[in-house]
Design brief:
With 195 residues, the protein is mainly α. Helix content is 51%, strand content 10%. α1 runs antiparallel to α4. The chain starts with a helix and ends with a helix.
Amino acid sequence: MKRLFDIVSAAGVLVVFAPLLIFISIWIIIDSGFPIFYKQQRIGKNLKPFGLFKFRTMVTNAEKQGKITVGRRDPRVTKVGYYLRKYKLDELPQLINILIGDMSVVGPRPEVQEYVKLYNKEQLKVLSVKPGLTDYASLAYINENEVLEKSSNPQKTYIEEIMPEKLALNQKYIQEKSFFTDLNIIIKTLLKIIA
């Protein structure tokens, strides 16, 4: 049932928002050239790595300067990228990941290997389910970049404060997961984005 919902909803959104996706692609090319998409390796269910798709919001090779984005002051973010990030539009290509089967609409946000290596045994349980486009942690930290922007050491703040709290929320989702839980999270996510 969950997989069917994922396929139908991801395909439906891709079809409905096709004109927007084309517009964003052209906007990126005009602003900073190619590539349009950015693919980053993340860790999925059962520690299986996969390539997560996003619209490119940073200058090319930005990852070499660090994996954490520090809000509006990050010089790596392009002009177009600022708006795509603000309205979460950079995440839309992950609908492709959902169709492929790497991700689900709702589930713990996938993390990079560098941070997964820091998980303890209990925290690793969040990798027992497919990662998702949104979850409780996404709702709680929808303005994560702004939080990190205020930190004198963003990486330390993320590892010691934000990541453990997000993982606790991921664990809560696993305990409560159901179709209605997913529906509730989707509705709350949409309301947060348009608010």
